[in-house]
Structure formats: C-alpha cells, structure tokens
Specification:
Length: 798
C-alpha cells in the first residue's frame, strides 16, 4: 500500500472533522502532530503527540466507530496493556471495543499503510489471537489500516470471526475474513467486489504497491523450493484469468475472481481453486482461439495448492489490471515485465531484451517514418499501417514497444497526419478515444513456441486494450502451410530460380530477438528440408534468418539481435551468403557483453537489413553464379598446379638427398657432357640447362650405337632425363598457372618463376596449397559482386 503522505493525511483530518465537527471524539492536528481523544474513552496510557501515520489511522478508525459504527465512547479502550505468554511479555492493543455489559466484543490492531502488508500473520497472531483469550466475550478480531481511495479515506481490514476460529492455527488454514469492521455489534459481513458497485476494483496506487505485491506473490508461491519458471507460468495464468474476468463481467454483477463467502462463511480453498481454474480455461479458449468445448488443462493442484491459490486471489482480487493500465499504461506493464524478468529463469537461447535496445532498434528501422508514409498514402485501410511480426515474440517486448511508439506518434501528430477525410476516418476508426491501441489487433503479429511466453504476450496486449488477436502459441520455424493464419501461410516464390521454398511475403517489418542454438521441435526437424534452403544449418538463429526472409515483403525491414558468431565464424558462412543474396545490409551494431547479463554473457550484435526486390535478387544471383563458376574453375586449376609443383619439387629435393643428382652428373660425364653439380639450391633454369647439355651428349652418343646395343650407362641416363623433364614440365606449367591465379583470386602469395630454386619453389608450393585450401570461391565471388550493389542506411539514420 501507498503511505498516506501529506495530501492523504490532510484528507483523513478533513474527513474526521466532517464526521465529528465539534471534536467530541477526536481532535487531530497535523501541524503540531498531536491528537486529543474524548476523555470518555479508557486509556492504558496517555496519547498526545505522535510521529508516523499509525496514529492518524487510529484516529480515523476511532472517529468512524463512534459516528458511523454506532459504538459508545465509554465502550472504547485505547492502548490497553497485557502480559501474555510464557515467559510473560508485554503486549498492547490499539483499540478494544466492549459491549454495554463490559465484556469484550472486538479487538482492533491498527497499522500504518506501509506496515499493513508486512508480516501480517505475525501481527494477527501476536496482537490479536494471543490477546483474545485474555478478554472474555471476544467475538471479532480486526487487523486494520486506512487507505485513500477515490471517495476519500477508507478503512481497509481483515476482520476475523473469533467465535468460529479460536486459534490462529485454525484460521490460517482457511484465512476467512470480512473486509469490514461490523457496525453496532453486528456479525462480520462480507461485501463483494461488484462491477460498478459500492466495492469495486481499484487501480494500483503506484510502483511501490505493485512492487510489494510482486514480492508477496513470489514469497507465497516459492516456499523455498518451487522453480521460478513454474511460479512465473502460474502467475501468467492467474493474470490471464483476472483480465478475462474484468473484461467480461457485466455492470452490477460480482467479479468471479474473488473469495466467496456463502452464508457469510468463507468458501473452502478447494472451491476458490476450482473457480479460478475454470475461469482460466475459459480465458484460454477465448484468447487462444479455441472452441468452447475444446479440452484445456486448468491449474495444476500438484504445483500450487488450493490454499496457495486462494492466498494469491486474496492478494490481487481488489486490484484492477485493466483500470491500472488505463490510468497509467506503463505502470502495469513494468510490473508484469518485472515478474517476467525476475521470475523467468532464462534458459539457453531464451533471454529478454532491454527496453533501451528495443527502442533503439525501432528508431533505426524508422518505423515511424514508415507509418507516416503509409497512413498518408492512397492505399486501402488494410495497408495504411505497417504489418509487424516477431516470430519469437516471448512476452511481447518488441511488439509492445512498437505499439506504444506508433500509437503515441499517431495521437501526437494526428492533426498533421489527417490531411484528408480518408486519413481522418482511418485514424478515428483505428485509434478511438479510450482504445487507442485498437489498430494493433490487425497489424501486429507474434509467435512463440513456449506456451507461457505466448500467454505472457497475450496478457501484456490485453492489458493495453487489444493487439492480442494475432499472438499465437506456435513454433516460429514451423512449415508455413501449417499455420492457420492466412497472412502466415506461404506460396511459391515468384522466381523459383532465386528462391526454391515457399514465402508469405506479407510483413513490412520483422523485429526480433530469436532463441540462439536451441534444440528444435521434432515436428520442425522433420520438415526442415521441405521448408528451408538452410536446413543443414544447425543453429536456430540461422533458420530464423531464412524465416524472416520468407515473412517479409520485398523491401521489408529487418531489425534483429544475433550472436556475434553469426557474423564471424566459418560454420555460419552459408547463412551470411544467404543474407547478402536476399537482403541489403543497412547496419550492424555490436553490443557490449553486459547487454544481456546476468542471463547470458553471449556477445551479440544488432542486424538491420532490407529485403531485396525479386529483380535485385535475380540480378545478384546471376552475377554470383557467373563469378562463382569462374572462381571455382580458377581455384581447381590452381590447386592442380600447386599440388603438381609440390610433388615435383619434393621429388627433386629427394633426388639431391638420395644421390640421384650425383649419379646424373657422373653419367653425363661418361657420355661426354660436362655438368655442374646439382643441389637443392639450384634453380629450375639451371637444372633445365644441365638436362639440355646431357640430352645433346646422349644424342651424339646414340648415333654411334643402335637402339638395341646402347651401353647400360646410356639407357640409365635416358631414364633420368625423362624423370627430370617431367618434373621440369610440371613446374613450368605451375609457374604459368599459379601467378595468374594469384592475381585473379587475390591470394597475395609470393611470385614464382623458373629462376626460383628448388627450395624456394617447395616453400611457395606449400603456401599456394594452404591459401587455396582456405579460399572459398563463394566468398571470392561475393567480393566481386558486392561493389556493384550500392548499400545505404534507412532514411532516419542518414
């Protein structure tokens, strides 16, 4: 609860003065921080000066008891002291109500608003149940405070029938209480929450109250062992049920999500649990688009007991989710996102995006500029706003932010936008007063494979008065034909030579933070080849890139979060080439590693891109195919030459090592050819010259002998000449092919010529083999094609 504060204190003082204009019972002075009670009251100790808000609350309750409640002042005792327990300890009671015969009727413990929700059980037990046995005749126990509502100060209390629940341990099992202090010694009566009734739902007073509610929900449900994800899923279901209850309860009718008191006795927790479960199932059928007789699982009693459920209902039943959102659209959104961020343990690949990053992405995509152009255009109403989708929407962060930005902009600039009756009629129909987000139900789409996150997005949208119509619990990578929604279903690409799978091409903007490297659903895995050209890519984010392509219209805009590895690792090369083939890259923004901590230390970047037109895709594809074919031919020819060079130089080096060069020199001398000694430091030119001299000598010697009668050394040297000539020829070919490939493929290797030594050529052969192995002809082709396609950022970033 919110504290009374300065204004609240003045409202309490004014109400006291109105109820007791002569000051017969209470005189409250906020200037001097003093209070004066009627001397007809009984005092355990004198009360005069005060600090804090508790005494202000007691003064109001005492005044109410004497004026509206119908109690005589001589039947009221304040600050009554007790000695209770073993060992004896002192205790004080704020207000004791006696009957006329002197017997106790009601014990009232008063707290300041800020203290009212803190350790309630300990105060109810210690200050009420432990004192009650010492006051004969006690019928009623009440734990109370004062809260400022629309009608002014009101008493907020838990009033317990002590005749029924004599021990705290008995009461705490059912937690039965009335929300009013009885008047004139009556029985505690429960006043139901009624739409438009005297006790209606109220909006939250502010962030502190919602923060305390959020912490209480977690404390009640956690119990030291329940997984946070289970708690989160449960709270989402309760919120869906409550939102549905608020939206569908007729005026003058009781709300269904509240504790019932048949016969003025609190219903069993099991009945409360069943009521909430039935309400949730009805809400699920409605908002998830199921038939009324569709089977839906309700709340799980094994996860959270009926007693826990009843306690949660007790905490939130008076709070209006819808009214809170109307009064302050961001207040409940922050509350719900707090539950999301604090309660949902984000597993591998699943983590939520900070609002600053989301807003930045919407700005860079120039969504507002797109809105202006569309809304002022002569298009049909169905095309006057951008269609936006997040196929991994989580709790709806991106969609909610896009909705808020667009609504705020259109409302703020309505006069400028409405240049003709056509635009004026569109704005009036899609941005009506009180339901400014109505347009979102037609133009925003979201999918999520995790049911609780899809429900979260539904609730988030519902609380902001629609936009939830196209939020689906569905795998964002499922085959397009499997979707029921027409805008998601695919048809063959207009040019099958450009792209071979189905596309929906229905959306102007895709904005998303997809799950990274997650295990895919078995149904999705079975259909990958039929649905994706990148079906061999293991990482989910790579498949999502192709899905974004399938969803976007030509010229559609893409703004997404991706792991840094997407842009750098070799395993993601195919998907990067796909990206360039089908998108114009606008910007890549690297985020600090703290961007998604503490959930994940994964380094991420933002990708902004625009889908190419079919004509651009075709032009890119044609050029890429041409350059890839040329590059592949050049690479293969160079690889053959490099391997031949490597083998030949290795053979020549071995010839020097194993003495074959010495034998060649000796045999050449025997044939009459003077020859210098050949070593690994000899150049190919020198080796070729030596071979030529020996060949001439052999030719001269061969004239003196017939082919059959050639001496053994002649036959041996001829074999050596053939061996050397084949190596020289291979090296000569390599020295012709490799320099050309070096220039064409941009290998940046050292030059090779026949003047190089055997050792130099061997080293350069290894260099070519390695560089050619590393070379991807597709990347080379991309470098050739890219300069002819001009890239630019979105207009807003110029």
């Amino acid at each position: 609860m919110e504290p009374l504060g300065f204004d609240g204190g003045n409202k309490v003082a004014a109400k006291i003065a109105k109820l007791d204009p002569e000051g017969r019972y209470v005189r409250l002075n906020l200037v001097t921080h003093s209070v004066e009670y009627s001397r007809e009251f009984e005092f355990g100790e004198e009360i005069s000066d005060f600090t804090g808000e508790e005494e202000i609350c007691r003064a109001f309750i005492v005044c109410w008891l004497c004026t509206i409640g119908g109690y005589l002042p001589n039947c009221i005792a304040l600050e009554r002291r007790y000695s209770i327990g073993r060992p004896k300890t002192g205790a004080e009671l704020d207000i004791l109500l006696r009957r006329v015969d002197g017997l106790a009727y009601a014990l009232i413990e008063v707290k300041a608003p800020l203290d009212y929700t803190v350790d309630q059980d300990s105060f109810i037990k210690g200050q009420l149940f432990n004192i009650a046995p010492h006051e004969e005749g006690t019928s009623v126990l009440s734990f109370a405070t004062v809260q400022i509502r629309h009608a002014g100060p009101e008493i907020v209390c838990k009033t317990i029938d002590y005749k029924t629940y004599r021990r705290f341990e008995d009461w705490v099992l059912s937690r039965a209480f009335s929300n009013q202090i009885p008047t004139n010694y009556g029985e505690p009566e429960h006043v139901y929450l009624v739409n438009g009734g005297p006790r209606d739902l109220r909006p939250a007073t502010g962030v502190p109250e919602l923060t305390r509610i959020r912490k209480r929900l977690h404390d009640v449900l956690w119990r030291g062992a329940t997984p946070d994800n289970t708690i989160y899923a449960y709270v989402v279901k309760i919120f869906l049920a409550k939102t549905h209850d608020e939206k569908t309860t007729n005026r003058g009718t009781r709300y269904r999500l509240q504790i019932k008191y048949p016969g003025n006795k609190r219903e069993p927790s099991s009945q409360t649990f069943q009521n909430v479960s039935d309400l949730y199932k009805a809400a699920y059928r409605k908002y998830m688009g199921l038939s009324e007789d569709a089977a839906v699982d309700g709340l799980n009693e094994t996860e959270f007991s009926p007693e826990q459920t009843a306690f949660v209902v007790e905490i939130i039943q008076e709070l209006s989710l819808v009214k809170t959102t109307q009064a302050n659209p961001d207040l409940l959104g922050r509350f719900f996102e707090g539950i999301t961020r604090d309660g949902f343990k984000q597993s591998k690949g699943l983590f939520f995006t900070h609002q600053n990053i989301v807003s930045f992405m919407i700005y860079v995509l120039d969504v507002i500029g797109l809105v202006d152009r569309k809304i002022k255009s002569d298009r049909l109403a169905t095309e006057k706003l951008p269609y936006i989708i997040d196929p991994a929407c989580g709790s709806g962060t991106f969609l909610l932010s896009a909705m808020n930005h667009i609504t705020d902009h259109v409302i703020a600039t309505a006069e400028t936008l409405m240049t003709n009756d056509d635009v004026k009629e569109f704005v009036a129909a899609h941005f009506p007063n009180g339901q400014e987000n109505l347009w979102a139900k037609d133009f925003l789409y979201g999918l999520d494979a995790t049911e609780v996150l899809a429900l979260s997005a539904k609730v988030n949208m519902l609380l902001r008065r629609d936009g939830q119509a196209h939020i689906y619990h569905s795998d964002g990578l499922a085959p397009l034909p499997s979707y029921k929604e027409t805008r998601l279903r695919g048809t063959p690409h207009r040019d099958r030579s450009v792209y071979s799978k189905h596309v929906s091409a229905s959306f102007d903007v895709v904005i998303s933070n997809p799950p990274f490297s997650i295990t895919l659903d078995q149904h999705t895995l079975r259909n990958l080849k039929a649905s994706f050209e990148l079906s061999s890519e293991g990482n989910s984010e790579n498949l999502f890139l192709e899905r974004w392509y399938q969803l976007l219209k030509p010229g559609g805009r893409l703004g997404v979060v991706l792991p840094e590895s997407f842009f750098s690792t070799k395993e993601n090369l195919d998907v990067r080439l796909f990206l360039f083939s089908h998108f114009r890259i606008k910007a890549i923004v690297s985020l600090p590693k703290e961007a998604f901590e503490p959930w994940t230390p994964t380094r991420t970047s933002l990708l902004f891109a625009e889908k190419r037109t079919v004509e651009e895709e075709g032009k890119w594809k044609n050029q890429v195919v041409k350059w890839e074919a040329r590059g592949l031919r050049a690479k293969k020819a160079a690889q053959r030459a490099a391997l031949a060079l490597q083998r030949s130089t290795l053979d020549l080096q071995q010839g020097h090592t194993n003495g074959r060069f010495r034998d060649f020199r000796r045999l050449g001398k025997e044939c009459g050819a003077g020859s210098q000694e050949l070593t690994g430091a000899a150049s190919i030119v020198e080796i070729a010259s030596a071979v030529e001299r020996v060949a001439d000598a052999i030719a001269h010697c061969s004239g003196k002998h017939s082919q059959k009668n050639s001496p053994p050394h002649i036959i041996q040297v001829k074999r050596m000449l053939r061996w050397l000539n084949s190596r020289i020829a291979a090296i000569s070919d390599a020295c012709d092919v490799l320099p050309k490939a070096n220039r064409l493929l941009g290998l940046d290797n050292d030059p090779i010529t026949l003047d190089n030594t055997i050792e130099e050529l061997a080293a350069r052969a290894r260099q070519y083999v390695i560089s050619l192995k590393r070379l991807d002809h597709r990347v080379w082709a991309f470098r050739k094609v890219a300069p002819s396609f001009r890239l630019s950022v979105f207009p807003v970033c110029r």
